[in-house]
Amino acid sequence: MTQVYTMFRRFLRPARRLPIWLILSISAPFIFEVLLHQRRYNVAKPASELDTPFFTSCQEPDVSAKRENAVLVMLARNYELEKANKTINSIDAHFNRWFNYPILFLNDEPWDQKFIDELNKTTRGLATFDVIPKDEWTFPKGVDVNAAKQSIKEQGEAGIPHAGEEGYHHMCRFYSGKFYTLEAMKKYRWYWRLEPDVDFTCAISYDPFVQMARHKKVYGFTIALWEVGQSCPGLFRSISEWKELMGIPDNNLWKAMVSASWVPYPFRRFLSWQSHRDSYGDSWSLCHYWSNFEIADMEFFRTRAYQDLFEYLDKKGGFYFERWGDAAVHSLAVALLVDPRKVHHFEDFGYRHAFLWQCPANAPGGQLPDSPLLGSGAWSPELENGIGCRCECDGKTNRNHPGYCLNKLKQPNSIKRPWFTWFL
Ligand SMILES: *[C@@H]1O[C@H](CO)[C@@H](O)[C@H](O)[C@H]1NC(C)=O
Ligand SMILES: *[C@@H]1O[C@H](CO)[C@@H](O)[C@H](O)[C@H]1NC(C)=O
After folding, report:
1. Could you tell me if the CB of 105 is within 6 A of ligand 2?
2. N or C: which end of the chain has fewer CB within 10 A?
3. Based on the domain organization, do 175 and 290 belong to the same domain?
4. Which of 202, 253, 201 lies closest to 55 in space, CA to CA?
5. Is residue 182 part of a domain?
6. Average pLDDT along the chain
7. What is the β-pairing status of strands 343-345 and 219-221?
8. Does 244 reside within a domain?
9. Per residue in 118-141, pLDDT tens?
């Protein structure tokens, strides 16, 4: 023990004798490099908002306006009848009673007649009930199924949420890729994703599809938050590999997804074996859009680029040997391939799923109490800066949960950099 201690002292001695100026001049380039590196991932606040709500008060629903080619889609299982019914009642009361978009129900198993009868009765617009073809809800070709099943079992035992359920893996894979090319989806361009057990808590008095199209938006969300890290340790690495392969430059949304490492070059490269890091040692913040709510343009998800990325990820096996979620896949793909201006936060929507929610305060003087179509009703108080339409928030007038990811993902912009940072 003493020997070790003496050796250690001897080892340290020269360092202790180093004059301060030498230590500083050795470390200065590294410090400078780290600062430059941080700068590279810094996203400056835009001079003006890139994405504002389409409306900040109630509108008289324009029921005669032209609709977009859009569908509301819900993946559900037969035993989720009550919860599915609840969602449909909610979206109907808050939106679809004015706009009458068709609703497509998807199941990986044949529907119970009872489900069809009940939900067909509840749905006002056209309801269709479709079954996902077996080969789009299973292990892809080339995957060692036994090894995958063993891994799923182990992931479940490790306590990773839903990772022990084989069907959940199939679902994440399905929503990540095949969903967009499904026969039943082909005739539509836009979709609004619904889930069983969802509440809409504000009146949606305008047509979000029409507004998305008019403002050239591609992807719309309500809630942004952190992904469960254990579910996808290798996802970010795989996506950044593909990015590199395709030579895709960083846009600001991608930068906003990255937490730049504080370790100087070349040492940060040694971090790259850790979870959620790219080959340079920088990591993903785990921020993503919660995909149980999405309003999006399928033309994006059907592009060569997106489908190619999906195929690349599929071959990596991470949908089974890890539990890559479609929310993370969609979000990182959007960050990579979509102009930040084309992402829309529906901050005027009241939305709850599981224990997370968003509910805006009501717009002062914007509730159209005499509206013939919105009808009479009760709603939460109107507050200064409120943007909601007839929201019933139960006192919960928060914008979102939690704030960090939302701010991080809303900040990106395409603003020009100051000239003195051009060389970075
Ligand atoms: C579904 O909702 C309707 C109201 O629209 C209700 O009458 C019906 O009882 C509900 N069915 C189930 C199974 O919850
Ligand atoms: C739903 O109900 C309508 C009208 O009652 C009926 O014409 C239609 O065939 C039903 N659809 C399904 C899928 O059962």
Report:
1. no
2. N
3. yes
4. 202
5. yes
6. 91
7. parallel
8. yes
9. 999 999 889 999 999 999 999 999
